[in-house]
Amino acid sequence: MSNPQAPRDSRPTKDTDAADFRNRIRVEIRGKRPIILDDTPVGCHGEELAPLLWRGKQWAVTNLGIERLDGGYIITADRLMESRPNWSWPEHMGLKMWCDIDEFITAWLVAIVLLRDAIPQDQHESLKPDLIRGTIERSHPPHPKLSE
Model-level pTM? Predict the structure, then answer.
């Protein structure tokens, strides 16, 4: 006799595709519970954030895309892979002194996974792991060596 409380196996099968699998992960397993790494209150200087999927100290992944917690910066999901591989959001944000680039990269990767269906089909070529890895490596500006 099967246990009605036992969680269903959510792994994809031959009968499901990747998009169905991601949707089931989001809805059946995570439900409406966002992943929150830091819940320190942040004053809102821009628009209120859309519903959270993931939250860090400076950045959040929402139903719309990546948003800075104070509402002052948003990258919509359809723009996540914009201009890649020539110039990417992590490379652009890595030049901003106010941006926690490591957290931004985490938010960017989370957004790519959770919001992949919103990324235009012609940009899916940029989702190759070696291109993503190169983007991350280029996003950290060189730091001068400290003199001993």
Answer: 0.68
Q: Region 39-65: what's the mean pLDDT?
A: 82
Dihedral of the alpha carbons of 75, 138, 81, 99, in degrees to the nearest 10: -10
DSSP string for 89-140: HHHHHHT-TT--HHHHHHHHHHHHHHTGGGS-GGGGGGG-HHHHHHHHHHHS
* Three-state secondary-structure class, residue 29: helix
Please report the pLDDT score of residue 125 as a whole number.
Answer: 83
User: How far from 123 is each of 130, 136, 147, CA to CA, in Å?
Assistant: 15, 17, 43
Region for residue 31 given its phi and psi (left: phi exceeds 0; alpha: psi -120 to 50; beta: otherwise): left
pLDDT band at residue 139, thresholds of 50, 70 and 90?
confident
Domains of the chain, by residue range, sit at 27-139
pLDDT at 135: 87
* Tokens of residue 130, six digits: 């070696």
Q: Order the strands of the 59-62 sheet from edge to edge.
A: 35-36, 52-55, 59-62, 65-68, 74-76
Site of tokens 């060189």: 142
Average pLDDT of the segment spanning 44-64: 85
